[in-house]
Amino acid sequence: MVNFIINIFDSWPHWLATMLLSGLPLTELRLTIPLAIHSWNINPMDAYGLAVLGTIIPFFPIFFGLLWLRRLCEEHLPKLVAPIDKLLAHGEHKLKKQYDRYGAIALFLLASIPLPLAGLWSSALVAVALKIPFKQSFIAIFLGTLVAGGLVTLITAGANAWF
After folding, report:
1. How far apart are CA 16 and CA 3, in angstroms?
2. Total count of domains within the chain
3. What is residue 25's three-state secondary structure?
């Protein structure tokens, strides 16, 4: 999969490819930072900055657009309401107990875990499902994204030093 991604984006400006890939749910910055550093020789701090920026951009359409999309589907495409409701129920189930107990720290921790499918997309989905206010959601998720990006950058740069 990594070679496939490199082949697709190799002809693009590498800074732009880094931002775009970091905004996708399967790659986010967890795959994009190592790819930018190792394959495109982007400076680790630049890769970090570009990846964090690219990762945080989808927060806004997810947070503000998901419920709007659901309402639109209710009116025009009722068959799509069930998958959206299932997605929201999954998001609610994923973090409800932790959020009730720890508040925004639970959202921050979900965003900061440097593992696939535990980043901004999941965190934003949980924020929408639990109806967490925008400011609280954004701050927790943004800080978690900064931490995750820092961890991935340190691990990647450390791997370069060792190997």
Report:
1. 18
2. 2
3. coil
Instruction: Give the residue from 70, 55, 72, 73 showing the smallest Cα distance to 123.
Output: 55
Judge contact between 50 and 18, C-beta under 8 A.
yes
- Sign of the Cα torsion 23, 53, 105, 44 reads positive
d(CA 138, CA 70): 21
Give tens-digit pLDDT for 90-149.
Answer: 878 877 888 889 889 999 999 998 877 778 998 998 999 899 999 999 999 999 999 999
* pTM for this prediction: 0.88
Q: Is residue 7 part of a domain?
A: yes
Does 163 fall in a domain? Answer: no
3-state secondary structure of 6: helix
Residues 18 and 82 in one domain: no
Does residue 111 share a domain with residue 72? yes
